[in-house]
Design a protein that fits this description.
InterPro entries: Bact_HTH_transcr_reg (IPR050679), Chorismate_lyase_/UTRA_dom_sf (IPR028978), UTRA (IPR011663)
CATH class: Alpha Beta
Protein name: DNA-binding GntR family transcriptional regulator
Organism: Nonomuraea rubra
GO molecular function, one term: DNA binding
Strand order of the largest sheet: 1-2-3-6-5-4
Largest sheet: 6 strands, antiparallel
CATH topology: Chorismate lyase
Radius of gyration: 17 Å
Number of strands: 6
Shape: globular
Keywords: DNA-binding
Length: 174
């Protein structure tokens, strides 16, 4: 929903908080944490060579037990390998807090959105029907010194997302 309340934005999981606020039974589970080869898109965002090892943290989100989203955080192995960002399980209190604890302050982000057919992994994990597409959102975050510190790739089942729009309190326009 827009706008997101500051208390929700600062929660341990924006997805869980938003889904619960909308009356949905939200869930998430970690699918993978470890090193993997950077794709062309991830490599460009992190400013590493294609195929270079990057730290990947992949999880799946569900709403009312239906898989709706795969979210993968990518980090440069030279900056974040050997830190708690590479350890199994969810990072507490949040990934953002861990990045700040490692000395990186958020400066800016760039986001792109692509609608496309799913890969086999995405089709199976999201339990998609034949012909169903996904939406890929790729957000690259950079520190105040322009160091790439976090790339978040979110793959959504295109037919399972509704983005409700709410009025900003005190205003009569969007």
């Amino acid at each position: 929903m827009l706008p997101t309340e500051p208390a929700v934005r600062g929660s341990a999981s924006l997805f869980l908080s938003e889904a619960q606020r909308q009356g949905l039974k939200a869930g998430r589970r970690m699918l993978y944490v470890g090193l993997e080869a950077a794709s062309e898109q991830v490599a460009a965002c992190l400013r590493v060579e294609v195929g270079a090892d990057v730290v990947a943290r992949r999880k799946m989100m569900t709403a009312n037990d239906v898989p709706v989203r795969i979210a993968t955080s990518y980090f440069r192995a030279d900056l974040f390998g050997g830190t708690r960002l590479g350890e199994p399980g969810f990072v507490r209190p949040s990934l953002q807090a861990a990045i700040v604890d490692l000395g990186h302050a958020f400066g800016r982000a760039e986001e792109s959105l692509i609608a496309r057919p799913p890969t086999g992994f995405e089709r199976e994990t999201l339990e998609l029907d034949p012909g169903e597409w996904v939406v890929q959102v790729l957000r690259a975050s950079y520190s105040t010194t322009d160091t790439p510190v976090h790339v978040l790739e979110t793959i959504c089942a295109a037919s399972r997302h509704v983005f409700s729009i709410a009025q900003v309190p005190g205003h009569d326009e969007f």
